[in-house]
Amino acid sequence: MNGGSSGGQRMQPLPPDARARETGLLEVRGVTVRFGGITALDDVSLTAAPRQVTGIIGPNGAGKTTLLNVLCGLVRPQAGQIRFDGRELTRLRPHRLAGLGIARTLQGVGLFDGLSAVENVMVGATCHARAGFWSGLFGLPRSDRDERMLRKQALEALDLVDAADLADSMPPALAYGLRKRVALARALVARPRLLLLDEPASGLSESELPEIGDLIQKIAADASVVVIEHRMDLMMSVCDTITVLDFGKVIAGGTPREVQAAPAVTAAYLGVEVGPWPGEDAQAPAAGQDTPPSAADTGTLPGGGQQGEVQHESHAQDESHGEVQDGAPGHE
User: Which residues in 107-132 are b (16+ Cβ under 10 Å) and which e?
Assistant: First the structure.
């Protein structure tokens, strides 16, 4: 999947591709991001197909959130191309994404405490508003019609995430899991064709994971969904394909079962190379002899899913959020 280092060479324009005309296809080709002397992403390539769930996993500091920030225009890569529906996104500003049908959730909920749940969701629907500033300022009839329309759309989004009964609740009074649902509804109300989810299961209990998993799959029926998440049991159950990052490079990709069985993934999560048992060769054990279970056999990645993360301190800064950043100082 990773086509080798791009170095400092200029990327050639992507050739015409029939797949790019399919609604909701995201293509990332050879993306490289550097922060000073640190390479946060190194020639990363992946494809997120329409109406599928594409997962991005890897140890802490692997470059997952940096990649999401690149997709949102918050970080500009030194090399590579990003296309959605065949349209170039590499230099697009973040405020233009909603108009293209792209929405994102954050690791935190980011709700306004002074607004009710439905009002918070209405904020996400402003890209569909028709009334202008002056209509809203003077309370003209067009503004009233606009507000009724946005409220209706917000209530529908809350109902989609099974939170319609929370419409008039204030965020501080809600449990964390319910606030996550409201935040997800705020992203969905924009009717995205590409939804980027940054750790949607963070802070949720084990009993809440099946519900969020079902919700992600329901969303994928109408949109392309890209998910970053540490909860491996969730990722293996909801994702159609998974890309694994380590130190900013793609080390594996494929179906969940293929990723689980990849030695490079096991090594990245355990921090060691995986080989035969001490004192044994690489041949299969004799009949009746026990064999160590593989990740594919256990259904989880080594380290017990959410606990199996390795911190790469040299890349700790790549998980930052904020304003648009350039990969190199002085780059505009």
Answer: bebebeeeebbbbbbbebbebeeebe
Looking up residue 299, the CATH number of its domain turns out to be 3.40.50.300
* Cα–Cα distances in angstroms (integers) from residue 284 to residues 7, 11, 257, 265, 281, in the given order: 41, 45, 21, 22, 8
Residues 59 and 207 placed together within one structural domain of the fold: yes
Report d(CA 113, CA 108) in Å as an integer.
13
**pTM here?**
0.72
What is the pLDDT, as a whole number, of residue 23? 67
Among residues 18, 98, 68, which one has the least CA distance to residue 245?
68
Q: How many domains does the chain have?
A: 2
Q: What is the DSSP letter of 54?
A: E
CA atoms within 13 A on the CB side of 313: 0
Query: Above 90 in pLDDT, residue 149?
Result: no
Which contiguous run of DSSP H or E holds residue 149? helix 141-160
Average pLDDT over the chain, rounded to an integer: 77
Residue 268 confidence (pLDDT): 83
* Tens digit of each residue's pLDDT (9 = 90 or more) over 263-295: 998 888 776 554 443 444 444 444 444 444 444
What 8-state DSSP symbol labels residue 303? T
Q: Are 67 and 56 in contact (CB under 8 A)?
A: yes
Which three-class secondary structure state does DSSP give residue 158?
helix
Using DSSP bridges, classify how beta strands 38-48 and 26-35 pair: parallel, antiparallel or unpaired. Answer: antiparallel
Q: Which two tokens stand for residue 89?
A: 């996104």
d(CA 18, CA 197): 27
- 307 and 230, same structural domain? yes
pLDDT tens for 169-178 read 999 999 988 9
**Of 157, 191, 225, which marks where a domain is finished?**
191
Average pLDDT over residues 19-34: 79
